[in-house]
Amino acid sequence: MSNKFLVLGRAGMDLYADPPGTRVEEAKSFVSALGGSAANIAVGISRLGGQADLISAVSDDAVGRHALNALKSYGVGTQHVKTVGGAARNSLAVVETRNENCQSVIYRNGAADFQIDDSQVNTIPYADYNFMIVTGTALAAEPSRSATFLAMQLALGAGLVLIIDLDYRPYSWPSVDDARETYKRAAHMCGIIIGNDEEFAVMGQSLDDVKRIRSKLIVYKMGPLGSVTVHDGNISQVGVFSVKALKPTGAGDAFMAGFATGIAAETGVEQSVRRGSAAAAIVVTRVGCAPAMPTELELNEFLVNHAHSTL
User: Integer distance in angstroms from the first to the last C-alpha of the chain?
Assistant: First the structure.
């Protein structure tokens, strides 16, 4: 199976209090990096040897251009990223590199990526790709929500495998009820669903509920307890790798990149989950999210040197 991916969602800027360990309120300097879950996933896929093209929108200003330049520097395709003017602005996260009590302040008012629209996704040659990854935040507001569902329909019509990272951010949604119904609709369309216990709870599903699902490949992430995978009636659990973490951020995006490239390479579901877990373990030991994504060589060396994850 080929490894050509569309990734739909946000790209933004992260500002990290510097040096690592510094609290935001005490910082005298910050280091910038590409951010946003979809952008991070696309970078992770690209660094692991896949082809990743982003579907997003960025603001017509210096920060938007910073995001585009960063995406290109990582080898991520930007031909499906549009630039929007007016009051729309790229997302900004002000973050700490701290494993305990890590603070992350998110600025999402008038987010540019919520301006993804129908005309934009209608022009994409979906048949050129094999997978589309949707990050759930893109479903939280219009016109991005309608455009995302249209893109999903077009991708399915072209035979792509649809993967959703539930990526629930409460501050982006008008209500929990709205999130629940929207996620249910999106999950019904996707063959692969990845989320944590909080995200499945938003859909009203417990781990026991998920274990009874037979028509999807589901990865139910449980933080330090690892993850449970449900596939074709089989249930398996994979633990996490023991590392000395610098911070918790970026783990979910790295997991998706490692997992998705494993599925594309047909390494098997359990090995793909281990790849995702290993990528997540690497990212939390490094500063940043996009810059912290491992290469294929780094990931393979990590897997050789960490033969067993812990439950």
Answer: 31
